[in-house]
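Hey,

Quick one before I head out. I ran the complex with coenzyme A overnight. Inputs first:
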Amino acid sequence: MIYSKLCGTGSYLPEKVLTNHELATMVDTNHEWIMSRTGISERHIAANDEYTCDLAEKAARIALDAAGVNANEIDLVIVATTTADQVFPSTACLLQERLGISGPPAFDVQAVCAGFMFALDVADKFIRTGSAKCALVVGAETFSRIIDWTDRRTCILFGDGGGAVVLKADNEPGVYSTHLHSDGRHKDLLCVPSGVSRNYQSVLDGNAFTTMEGGEVFKWAVKGMADLVEETLEANQMTKDDLDWLIPHQANVRIINAVGKRAGVDPDKVITTVGHHGNTSAASVPLALDESIRNGKIKTGQLVLMEGFGGGFTWGSALLRV
Ligand code: COA
């Protein structure tokens, strides 16, 4: 049996930090309100000349370094992003070129805040079927570009960043299983209702922004991610006690706490990093993973359940031994 094994992680946050206090000078809000409703105190914002591929590249180089892998060993590149640099080629192709990799498949996956879980699932399947031996999987976003910075209901939540992992084929898990779901009936609850083919004028006018029914999204995110914990553990005949760490999508602290509580996971096992980077969409889970490995929380050999939830709705999980 072939499994995919995590052998390196990396992440990158843009230099500019936007605090709640600064936000309070831009919209009618305040630090206390944002902290009490979201647990977010600051987020990072890409510079005007900094693009998603720049964040992806920085995170990817750190992950390659941590894995001790040369770029020419990579035979699959997947980038999860909602905020691609260009309509085409894919950000994965742009990243591939920067890393000096030519030939192996490179493509983007779009599942918004669950994007990294979808990308990881695809990479895991490539490796399990023998189609790839060493995959680079990245989640990177410049979500600030699709935020209306005059809308206090959304602008307090999001930030920019990138996270990356290197997966290698191995005889032992590694990734035990991945689980993906989507339900397009909820397409209007969290979306940017314009793009290249539809409402293009709003893109040209610079008004293609994220809209959200916050309360509804909250409810579905908690249910989706709590159910995923059960589904994932059950599929592997494991229990919450077997888990060392749960990394839910870093959307906001209240959602993360509610997921842990509903799923019955000990709060001390739930990773929370959203407070200092906000919701970075597809980058949120690999960012939290990388940070927790680097600060020594997550140790080699431990069992980690990661999960994402995003617009669509889309939601997915992966259970792995790191
Ligand atoms: N600062 C101050 N007041 C704000 C505010 C802000 N940034 N944003 C909204 N408010 C106001 C509202 O206008 C409302 O005022 P009103 O009662 O006078 O109309 C009041 O606060 C309560 O708004 P409400 O939307 O009910 O707040 P909430 O407790 O649901 O919190 C969210 C709002 C967005 C924090 C919350 O719904 C949430 O976290 N949703 C999930 C969002 C998310 O994670 N999305 C991404 C998932 S991938």
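The chain is about 35% helix and 25% strand.

Talk tomorrow,
K.
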